Amino acid sequence: MSRLPVIDLDAVSSEDDILPVLKAILVNYDTFLLKNYANTLDTGSLGEIDLEQGFDANFTGTVQIEEHTYLEQYIATTDTSLQFDRACTDQGLNKISAKLLKLAIFFGQLALNAMDGTNDIDLEKHYSTKLTRYYSAQAGNMTLFDGESIEYLSPKNYTTHVSTGILTIFPQACGIRYKPITTSNDDNVWTVVDEPDCLLFHTGTYLQTISHGLHSTSPIQIDINRHNILHLTVYPEMGLQVGAEETIASLLLKQQIVELPSVGGTYYQDELSRLNLKKKIKFYGKLFATVETIVSLNYISKPRDMAMEVDKILVQCTNLMQNKITEDDFLKMLSIWPGVYNVEVNFNGELTVRLPFSNNLLKLTNNSRKLQYVQLIEAWYEKQLQRRHGAPAEDLDPVKFQKRHYHRDGLVKANKTTTRRTYISNSKDKFIFQEKRDDSQVNLLNRIKAKERTAMEELQLRESQYDKFLKVKMQKIMSILQTLVENEPYTMTYLNSLVVDSLRDGNNPISEEESEQCLLKIQQWLGEDTMRLITVKNGLKVLKWRGLNGVTL
């Protein structure tokens, strides 16, 4: 069972018993499971989606989001001032939606009452919903030559989802990744949940807003390549005011623009630009706080006042933020506050950074500087939004520094014209052809052969080293295969995805191409009697094995 909290309906004697359990869960968690729900919610039997209905500015209908992946979505509300005309016509999907709606209203009402003692929202009468379904044209069943049927799983492709509602319900807790309670929202750390017999509930930002600090929520990731994965989110009525400037409808619109930028760019280009710029502003604020910490700690660890190279700062920022940080990002960050650091160029032509003050106590992490940077970048953002002429800037402009070049004698200076008169003279020896030696042709041939031998030796060495590299990987992959059920067919794409995910957090990650090479080598080494390789339609490879326990390479 997953490490998520579980509400077991078989252990609940009455509905009143659920409220204290749910409240205790929501104080610490934003995701929980529901076990032993009596009604079946099988999404595998759903048919293909209607590709002809299109997708409108209300973010309802069907739209292609990747090469083989489509999104089908419907929004409804009891608010008569704002209506969504498109309705779902799929009977199977409507049946599942109706069951999810009953659960969403029941648990959503409990969640509101648990987190807000003064709640006056009656979800039975006033609510909104968003039903979202991902459909992968590649996923599904496939029949092998021997008549056996297998489920073809596409490589995992997770998309991040931030709900602005009260609760989101998934009919099956599969193909989903959540953040452990010990991690920050900014950390790129996720935990996979695979509980097909349970429903999964995840809270939204509205519940966090009305909880007065009792509850916090985080993003969730959904594998959009998984066949027929769907979820339903329940909200208050669309017109409900949230804070001074927002409504449920405006928060949902912004969330949809961010998560579906191809649609948002078509209907809401200006709003998409503002949201993207706001996201970058937040990134530069986080980057400055990280750089400030790194530079301050550098002064503590160094015996003397030494400048720190920007390249080293970028490496540490990448590790801490778990996102690739470039020099261009760093220079854009500086443009908001150019004098925040003393930036110089050393004798290697590399940018270095010093703090602008000499007091050692001030060289420690200074929260006032971080706050001042946030104020400066927020002021710049507001100024961009208030521009009367032209669109707001798409990004910050990087600060420009001239990287100088040095050699042993000092700084390389620009070429200067000389006024000293000189005469041009060429020796006649340069124009006299030397007599070719008789063995010049032989020497040329020998040199060519020597180069060929050297190239061949280097190639053999690289191939030998690569084979050793694959052999190490093969041993780890064999351990993974031994944990799977034998005599079951597995597609190569599924195995590659499993291997890459399993080895991603280790010291030696592997690519899908390397994984496939290793699997094919393992199959050749074991032979057809132990591991069969079957190629089906569209060139898809399927592996099936037996007797791997105890086998070592």
TrEMBL record:
Tell me, which GO biological process terms does this entry list? double-strand break repair via break-induced replication; pre-replicative complex assembly involved in nuclear cell cycle DNA replication; regulation of DNA-templated DNA replication initiation
Tagged with keyword Cell division: no
Q: Which GO terms describe its cellular component?
A: cytoplasm; nuclear pre-replicative complex
User: Which residue ranges does the record assign to the DNA replication factor Cdt1 C-terminal domain?
Assistant: 443-524
Q: Which InterPro entries match?
A: Cdt1_C, Cdt1_C_WH_dom_sf
Could you confirm whether the keyword Cell cycle appears in this record?
A: yes
* GO molecular function annotation: DNA replication origin binding
Q: Which keywords does this Swiss-Prot/TrEMBL entry list?
A: Cell cycle
Q: Which family does it belong to?
A: Belongs to the Cdt1 family.
Name of this protein: DNA replication factor Cdt1 C-terminal domain-containing protein
- Organism ancestry: Eukaryota, Fungi, Dikarya, Ascomycota, Saccharomycotina
